[in-house]
Amino acid sequence: MIHTSGPKAETAVDREAPEFPPAQSTDEDSYFKHNDEPSYLASLQVQVAEFIKIHKDRKIALVTSGGTTVPLENNTVRFIDNFSAGTRGSTSAEYFLEAGYAVIFLHRQFSLLPYSRHYSHSTNCFLDYMVEGNDNHSVQVDKKYEEQMLQVLKKYQYAKRNKLLLLVPFTTVNQYLFTLRMISQELGQQKAQNRSTTLFYLAAAVSDFFLPRSRVADHKIQSQGTGKLVVDLDPVPKFLKRLVDEWTPGAMIVSFKLETDSSLLIGKARGALERYSHQLGKKGDEVDQAEIERQVKAAVAAKEYFSELLERNASRHVQVRAIRAVGGGARSTRREFLNQQFEPIFQARNLSSLLSAVDTVYDNLAGLGIYENVTVALDETKEKVNGNGVRGLDNLDPFAGLFGNDSGRAYDNNERRNSGSKLELDAVVKLAQAKRFYAKTGTDLGNGEGNGYANMTFKNIFGGAEILSLDATMGTRTRSSYIANFSTPVLSVLPPQWRLETVAYMTSRTIPWASNEQLVRGMSTKIKSVPSLLKRPGQTPSPQQELGFEAVWRTIACSPGASSSVRDEAGNSLKASIFHSIAYDTRDSILLATHGNYYKFSHELAGLGGIGNAFYKTSFESQHNWLLFASPPTTSSSSSEPSTISSQQTTEPVSRTSLHIGTKAGLLWMLARPSSNSDTPPPSNLMDRFYLGGPNDVRGFYSSGIGPRDQSDSLGGEALLAAGVSLLTPIPKIKRTTPLRFHTFLNAGNLLALDRIGSSTTTAPTTSSILSSTAAELLNTPSISTGVGLLYCHPAARFELNITFPLIARRNEATRKGIQFGVGLSFL
After folding, report:
1. 505: which of 280, 308, 613, 772 is 20 to 30 A away, CA to CA?
2. What pTM, to 2 d.p., does this model score?
3. Domain 22-124+159-301: CATH architecture, name and number where available
4. How far apart are CA 712 and CA 24, in angstroms?
5. Pairwise CA distance, residues 625 & 727, whole Å
6. What is the largest CA-CA distance in the chain?
7. What SS3 class is residue 487?
8. Per-residue pLDDT tens digits for 9-68
């Protein structure tokens, strides 16, 4: 109970009282059941989920900042406030961004924000940084502040351009708790396989007491003439234990709490660590703005000093004498396998190449998918024999002693030249073991089909990062699918970022647009590159490639009412082929990109060993995305409900107008066998051809409704060309944070069967004439559609509801005028 008058301040609160116990399930259930969640939470959850999905392979930090309020009325006039400017949180967020993290910044509305904090709460007015231009009609940055502002601007623009910062405001303690739980659970679900890359930096000043909804007055509390206002507050449940154990287990937790009595500091800090079992906690004396600025300047100076030392010592000779692997992951992994992984560190000959090698080793180990966490520590060699007679290390501090000589000073260039000394180092690699077995079930949506699946995965089976995955799927079109996938690195043959995969599968599918059912049984072996997990600022993503061999036994069974062309295709066939694909992706989002490009080339050569028909098949896909302009920023003047994302939001795509252009092309060329008596190649198989049309590519047509047909059956084609242009805009009077867009599109495409015989009965057409005539027909006679609709971006898939208008269609093509619904992960 807090009294606004009457009791003396020093007796109003008992500072010796023990802290409230951690929230139990009943406390959490009771709080979230009896208090209303913010009205914007559902739409905010979609944005958070999309942000996490974009950065699923990157380290993510949730930074909380600023103080919470406790409203005393629903129509808030009076409230209790925990004051915090947000300096610690906003400053720390900048350092996390520089360290390669993507940051979700959960902050008090109108508190300090990363980058803008340098000027928004400065002792100088922001206008003091500006001067009038020489023409008296322009504004310029004062020369003495220009360099500093330029550096801040560059960092801000980099974070904005790469969508690394998500700004999520709150005002009340209720908004904070509901939002914190939602973000924590999203992080726990989407990063379940690698939670060690998630960090919680809880620097917000959260109220310890709140007023339950049932006791909140609707309107302003009236003066009673007694000079007293007595408010009966309930303690806010302590959710930190739930965060550590249930919401996002395995994540790194850093928490702060204010104490004004230094005699309570150590005891409460130790108690918090024991009570909540998190990794790092701090309870400190209250400090003023000047003290915080002093700490920030000290941290900046230390960082600059470290960078200077690294630059000055970059060419210093080093030699790593020994590497020790520790942790559960090291015990379950073969020694010879780890030795191969560590080879780049042993090969380093100077400090610069050593640090680069450490990054490479970290990237390779983390990319194996068998470790929960990977850390590397370096120290000067200190001979120390343990009880087992094995030389160990005195400490595990990363980079301890790298820059110090015997006197503890850093080597400069002259000292290195004069001394000619070589720094001998030892390394410790800590490998935290990830789960070696897990099973999961779920559902998938995509390309007009829904599936339910079950998966079992076994990791590090033989101690060499081997992974066995077993999948079973049943769906609306896929009657059944069973896949066994075994993958392993082959370091003696392939670079560390490549894996060897062997897959056995059996799939049964219904093909309604061609009146048949298809059963496919096969095996494939391929090598594939693994994407890098270590993404540095300005780093260009590497292309992803696959190269392999596939052998397939296929069966086509006709459905009742199948056309004669489909009946001719019925029966069994074999295929043996080699294939290769390469993809390059710089998009910021797979579902709804606002910038970046995507390219993919695929090639397949079939008929190896005389098995099945011989053919060459190639395809190309691309997508280009541009952000045209941002929606005008909106700022809420009410403190009772913040805007979901502030005007400086850099990751939320739904408030943007964007232009998307996609293309796809393909060619299937049948080959005549040398042993054949005829120069004319056999017809292509129904299952090898291309198909076009439907809500996911050329809208305004039924699925596979474009191209050659026999009655109502789509027969596919050997030559494909399609393109689409989409304009996505925010919807007026709809919150710009809502993941709903207005969609305008224009699609065009053509699918042809190659004429390999020609109209002449005496002379067969040449390859060049066939290709040139086909290309001309593809370009001159496309099917075209346009339309408008609504697009909703959900974390699981993209949903489109369009009104389509086919403009040009060939005879017998299956057009769809009117409403068309599409769901999937990839759209033209």
Report:
1. 613
2. 0.60
3. 3-Layer(aba) Sandwich (3.40)
4. 62
5. 10
6. 112
7. strand
8. 333 333 344 444 444 444 566 788 778 888 888 889 889 988 998 888 788 999 999 999
